[in-house]
From TrEMBL:
Transmembrane segments: none annotated. Residues 33-179 form the AB hydrolase-1 domain. It comes from the Bacteria. PANTHER family: AB HYDROLASE-1 DOMAIN-CONTAINING PROTEIN, ALPHA/BETA-HYDROLASES SUPERFAMILY PROTEIN. This is AB hydrolase-1 domain-containing protein. InterPro entries: AB_hydrolase_1 (IPR000073), AB_hydrolase_fold (IPR029058). It comes from Desulfopila aestuarii DSM 18488.
Amino acid sequence: MLFTDAHHTGPGAVICPPHPLLAGNMDNNVITAIASTLANHCPVLLFNYRGVGSSDSPQNHLPLFELWKGIDTTAAYGEIVQDLRTILAYTARLFRGIHLVGYSFGSYIALEAVNDTIASFTAIAPPLSEHDYSALFDLTIPTLMLLAEQDTLLGTLPPLPESFRGRCHHIPASDHFFRNREQELATRILTFICEIPRMNSHNEATSSGR
């Protein structure tokens, strides 16, 4: 699903949903809140993972649960990442830069697909203890991490690098699913994206002044 303006010449956004077995689709409450909020600022592309909704799957004969249970058991996420890379390649023809947003499992898939077309990266409730997120802390593009204050699904949050802590924020009175806090979450992301041109101008001025 693509929310776009044919005359738009700036960056757009791609939003990666959570795991398909945890309400991971483009109709997810958090995904739709972010999409509708960002669509007032830039074009937004939403998608479903393979086998979800109308998306094709190499194993269409398998029910969704069996398909993704098999992917999880073997940790065969490379093909899912490749699907996203294909989406990003398509989107790069439409947008000048991509604000990439990933929610939960989607933040891991998004991180694995980061390339030089990505203008910013937002990780929402990333399962840091389940996947390797070391690349997240080395990103040089504008980066934001949003956590739920009362997230009991992800367990204990590993220590964050000191240099990254200023880019990490908690949404108060929220759980992993951000029920009733969706708009606050979406507004935080929009504010972050709108501040990027000013941040880039400041960085350029600082660099040129050295």
